[in-house]
Amino acid sequence: MAVDKDAELEELIRTAGGEEGTEDDAGAGLDLATLLMVTRRSLPWMVFLILLGVTAAWLYLRYTPPIYQSSSTLKIDQKSQSGVLGLESAGKAVDARQSSKNLAGEVELIKSSVIYQRLRDSLDLDVNYFAEGTVLASEVYKTSPFRVEYRIKDNSFYNRKFNLNFLDANRFRLTYLLNGQEAGGEYRFGQPISTPQMELTIYRTSPATGAEELKVNYYFVINDDGAMARYFDENLVVEIVNPEANTIGISFKDNNALKAHDIVDKIDTLYLQEKLAKNSLASQQTLAFLEGQLDENSRKLQQAEVALQDFVRRNKTFDVKNDMGTIVEQTAEMQKEREELRLKINALADLTGLIGQNRVFVREGQSLEQSIPAIGALENPQIAEQISILNEQQGDLNRLLESYRPTTTAVQLKQEALEYTRRNIRGLLQGTKELLQREMAEIDRKQREMDARLQLLPEKETELARLRRPFELYEKSYLMLMDKKVEFSIAKAGTTPDFQILSPASMPQAPIFPVKLIVYAIGLAAGIFLGLALVATRYLMHNTVTNIRELERNTAAPVLGVVPSYDKEKLAVSKLIVDKNPKSAISEAIRSIRTNLEFMSTSKKTKRMISITSTISGEGKTFVAVNLGGIIALSDLRVIILDLDMRKPKVNLAFEAENTKGISTILINRHSVEECIQKTSIPTLDFISAGPTPPNPSELILHPEFDQMLAHLQEIYDVVIIDTPPVGLVTDGILIMRKVDIPIYIVRADYSKKSFLKNINKLVRGSGFNKLTTILNDARAGGMYGYGYGYGYGYGYGYGAGYGYYEETKAPTGLLNRLRRRFS
């Protein structure tokens, strides 16, 4: 019998496991209902993040000083009058070469220290005046109520902050840091302030002091040349707008719009003044130098020409170097021919040595030239043909010798033909060798003639080179000086500067940075992005069953009911509470489950057996079993609860009873069923605890005594409720579920993983548990029905939980609470 039970259990496990590969994953794909639920719960956070992004943008704009930009455009023309002088084409050539260089030079002139220094002096930019605000300090350009004149003795006092506060219309307080300590004092306007480090005199720029000026904290900074140069370099931009139109753009950025405008306007003025102040002095000096050099160079050039003409008349040649080159080329050609002849003679010697060898010259897969390279060097087809014949004859002879003796007639005839061919080849080689030797002798004779002519050329070449060097030098110098003279003459006579301001310095109306619309758009987009990221993150992390809709959608088993949360008290373990709170929401929910159990029964028998299990410990199966048994017992039915979770017994803890005897002792025949039945506070409700933990719980359940015990209890009680072990951890509960009328599977809201629902589907579709039903336990507010409770106990199969059941509380009132409940 035990063997049959083991086989039945193994078949049950195999059948359940076989469906795993075909079962769809619970919650696979996009769950729109869950996404909508997560989105609704995240709406307050999304609104908060959007407001946070907009607020961050506002704070950024509030605490970021604005930057203004003023710009202008200059057109630089070169009006040429060379056409009047008949030199229009030359003038165009000069303009084309110098156009791009001129514009780059103008850019460097505008950004030069000369313009910087004149700009600093003309606008009094060496001293910056500021008024401290609540958040930022603003420069009071041209509106400062005072003016500073200074002479700095200690360079460390440049770029230093000097604080100034008005005391009244004639007095002020000046403070600054000196060696880490605050220094200064009270002075009168116009009073010289002399220290070892500096001399200052501060004047008023307005006749009276208002009440507002007395409240403002002013300060000024005296800039040195380096600071001013860095200020201009960082904020001034000069660039070529259109090289073909000769236009240059000038722009300047500053935190003060009026200051940026004045600087660009003053740069335009100073640049024009600097260009107009320049004249053609450099061109005049260059022309005077060129005139003197031309006269001296012309005299020396004439002397060189006379000497060169005399040499040509005497030697009847003007190009000795060309004659020498011709002789050298002819000598090189003869050397090349001589080398080729030498190679051919060597090739003849090599072939002569090969002819006397009794072997095949051509290897298999190669040509005659590849096997005997000397044949290709001779370029004699007759010799190549004879050697080919000799090669074939030698091959035939070798093959014949493999079958016949050397004294046979056939072999001797082959040898005679072979010797004849060798004599022919030797004759051809000898004749070719004599011909090549005669050609080499002729080349040697011509070589000696060329060497004799070549020995006479160096003396003439040396003389000609000595005469030609000064001539060429003076000629090039003369032409270069003439070109320079013409070029500078055209630049002086044909070019006049002409400047035009195409667009004057603009007055900035709005800052270029930061742009409010862009900053607010970025803040809004960042808030929306963070809100969507929050929704996505919460959705991806949402891996637990939340409400009854998810349970119904992802399982094939019907939902028997929902057990709401209960938070009246926190219990260390599950307890019977329906007898103490018969009118509570949790009691009504379990009554609804009791009613639904009536519809699940397909037979008319009044006695039923119910099993309650879950995937893992902590999902509340013991709590549901105890209180469901209590509700059924309150309807005047005799109910008994069996604790079959012998590894982690908990039913006895729910009734605060001992666990010294129970199911385990009954199955080993140590106690009878009647001895282990324990009473509860409800007269019609009894229970049997699990008993001492045995070493083999699974084997005890398979024992025949287990079926006898169930049959005996069904005779005594109307309803038998079995608290089974979690089926996700051990397999005991699966076999127990086979024996009952109604198996119930507990799923705890916000605790059970969605992947646990696969176990339910496998039991229904793969193992044939068609009557399996589910109960959603611990359904909190927002899960479906709006209750709130929790329970906890810290034990069970590696899963620890600490939660307790609580009595429901009154729904919160007020607008804020209603909104919170609405979005939750």
Concise synopsis of the structure shown:
This protein is of the alpha/beta class.
Could you please describe the fold and organization of this structure?
- This protein folds into four domains: 31-64 and 514-543, no CATH class; 127-222, no CATH class; 320-499, no CATH class; 555-823, Rossmann fold (3-Layer(aba) Sandwich), CATH 3.40.50.300.
- The protein contains 25 helices and 21 strands.
- The model is unreliable at 1-27, 80-91 and 784-811 (pLDDT under 50).
- Belongs to the CpsD/CapB family.
- Keywords: ATP-binding, Cell inner membrane, Cell membrane, Kinase, Membrane, Nucleotide-binding, Transferase, Transmembrane, Transmembrane helix, Tyrosine-protein kinase.
Question: How is this fold's topology laid out?
Answer:
Elements: H1 2-18, H2 32-63, E1 68-80, H3 88-110, H4 113-123, E2 127-132, E3 137-139, E4 146-152, E5 161-166, E6 171-178, E7 181-188, E8 192-194, E9 198-204, H5 211-215, E10 217-222, H6 225-235, E11 236-242, E12 247-254, H7 257-277, H8 281-315, H9 320-355, H10 368-371, H11 373-378, H12 381-401, H13 409-494, E13 495-503, H14 516-541, H15 548-554, E14 559-564, H16 585-600, E15 608-614, H17 621-633, E16 639-643, H18 651-654, H19 663-667, H20 673-676, E17 678-679, E18 685-688, H21 697-701, H22 704-716, E19 719-723, H23 732-739, E20 742-748, H24 757-766, E21 773-779, H25 815-823
Parallel strand pairs: 14-21, 15-19, 15-20, 16-18, 16-19, 20-21
Antiparallel strand pairs: 1-12, 1-13, 2-3, 2-10, 4-9, 5-6, 5-10, 6-7, 8-9, 11-12, 17-18
